[in-house]
Write a structure and sequence with these properties.
The protein is of the alpha/beta class and 501 residues long. The chain contains 14 helices and 13 strands. Helices cover 42% and strands 12% of the residues. A 4-stranded parallel β-sheet has the order 2-1-5-6, with helices on both faces.
Length: 501
């Protein structure tokens, strides 16, 4: 009987849809499968372009628990094909294209062993031959060695960066705005711009309605022809990144990890050899302002309760939280109709938790349709989705360089510069689009995990606006002495996406 093959190609980093690397892998594996006389369906050609097999993220597992895992949908699809016997053998170029985390390899080995080798995995280089106990043992050893090598490289790089920071030395990388390429010598004109940006953020009305904003700062810089360190135009995120650099206060910091981050005083490990552009006190005040999740969503007193004035009673009155007297430790939502006696009540904590879960599910499913496209002709949701993808590519570059997967520093710097220029271009386009929808942050969301992450980053005021935009929540009257489940005490009606006419 002819074996049915599935092939899995992977590359850690690819710029702007570049597919040359994975295309070569697929071409070689197709020829290899054909020489053996195996069949290969087009749907079983799985490609992980621009996907790390080492980097892990915190995700929610099917059993409800959370754990750190690699996020590789195509790899999981390959396992599914083997588990359901839609394929008999998984073909990869090399073991390092298959897995760099032992846990991923073990998931595949479990399938092979429980099938008594009815399903297998083979590689073109011979480094992964899961066709016998000896082959499985060798794959385990090689994966463990590769994993340790990656971790050792990351540890050495991290330690070297700590040593440089403690000594007040520039750790390398693209030229930081405000300084020459050596990372130490100030550029007076750019230093003056940084100081000016900081003064604007410290204004009492910064971030308030009709007050100055990051977008406004970026707009002014573009109007005056002031360029970024890479020669591009400023966007709001570029301004934010510049202002959150501790080097502005002549502070040297070290914080292991990858991706976008902001620092705290606990991360300071040394002093820089240049004069501060912004005082240390002012820098931490700027950081606190720019990293406050409610800064862009709350105007006026911050809302405390998710549903107060949002959830409704069947009598059409809104409900508010009652937490006095015997309800001091267990607040409830209560309708204040009928002279304050009310028609319906519901425990605040349980109801907010339930509404939040339903909202996240709706946003993961319908956000793209619920967000109206601006009349400017710019597809903001598509731009935001692209922005997420480009930022991830940039993070992958940083990770791969730290792991030693990109040996040439020039190649790494060129990739980072290209990705950053793309990020700035997309952000400028978004800055120029007036988006009134409170759902705009959910553009490009494709999973409940991603929707939950965005939701948790919003202030309560913004969350309330989202609730109003996607659903109506109505409490149900409950008879005296009854305490039914929360799902029986409320009606949630999603607002259906409008179909363009």
């Amino acid at each position: 009987m002819t074996k049915r093959a599935a092939i899995l190609a992977r590359i850690s980093d690819a710029d702007d849809g570049e597919t040359a690397g994975v295309d070569d892998q697929v071409r070689d594996m197709r020829a290899w499968v054909a020489r053996r006389g195996w069949s290969l369906e087009e749907a079983h050609v799985l490609v992980e372009n621009d996907t790390s097999a080492f980097k892990r993220r915190k995700i929610k597992l099917p059993n409800g628990q959370t754990d750190f895992r690699t996020v590789r949908p195509k790899f999981r699809r390959a396992l599914e094909l083997l588990a359901t016997r839609q394929a008999d053998v998984l073909v990869v170029l090399d073991l390092d294209r298959l897995a760099r985390q032992p846990r991923d390899l073990e998931d595949l080995i479990d399938l092979v062993e429980t099938s008594r080798f009815a399903v297998t995995c083979e590689s073109l280089t011979g480094s992964c031959q899961l066709t016998s106990d000896a082959g499985i043992t060798m794959a385990r050893i090689m994966c463990a060695v590769a994993n340790k090598s990656s971790k050792d490289t990351a540890r050495r790089v991290s330690r070297a960066r700590l040593r440089q920071a403690e000594a007040g030395q520039f750790g390398g990388g693209p030229r930081p705005y405000g300084f020459e390429a050596d990372g130490i010598t100030p550029r007076p004109a750019e230093v003056a711009e940084i100081a000016k940006m900081g003064d604007v953020v410290l204004l009492p009305n910064f971030g308030k309605r009709n007050g100055p904003s990051l977008k406004g700062i970026a707009r002014d810089l573009r109007a005056r022809g002031v360029l970024t360190a890479t020669g591009g135009e400023f966007a709001s995120t570029t301004v934010r990144d510049v202002l959150l650099r501790p080097r502005n206060a002549a502070l040297m910091v070290h914080k292991p990890g990858e991706g976008r981050k902001h620092y705290t005083p606990a991360d300071v490990v040394g002093r820089a050899p240049w004069e501060p552009i912004i005082s240390e006190e002012a820098f931490w005040a700027i950081t606190a302002k720019l990293c406050d999740p409610s800064r862009l969503t709350n105007s006026g007193p911050a809302s405390k309760w998710l549903g107060s004035g949002v959830y409704r009673c069947p009598c059409a009155e809104v409900t508010r939280v009652h937490g006095a007297g015997d309800k001091a430790n267990r607040p409830v939502y209560r309708c204040y109709g009928s002279g304050g006696k009310g028609h319906a009540t519901c425990p605040q904590a349980e109801l907010d938790e339930y509404v939040e879960a339903v909202a996240i599910a709706i946003l993961a499913r319908d956000a793209a349709d619920l967000i109206a496209k601006p009349t400017t002709g710019v597809d903001a949701p598509a731009l935001r989705a692209e922005l997420i993808a480009v930022r991830q590519r940039k993070a992958n570059l940083v990770e791969d360089y730290a792991e030693g997967l990109i040996p040439e520093r020039a190649e790494y710097l060129a990739g980072v510069k290209k990705a950053q220029a793309k990020i700035e271009k997309i952000q400028r386009a978004l800055d120029d689009v007036a988006e009134s929808s409170p759902l705009a942050p959910f553009a490009g969301i494709e999973s409940e995990e991603a929707a939950r992450t965005v939701w948790k980053g919003l202030g309560v005021t913004h969350q309330r606006e989202v609730i109003n935009a996607i659903m109506t929540v109505t409490l149900k009257p409950v008879g005296s002495g009854k305490r039914p489940h929360i799902t029986e005490r409320v009606t949630i009606e999603p607002i259906k996406p409008t179909t363009p006419g």
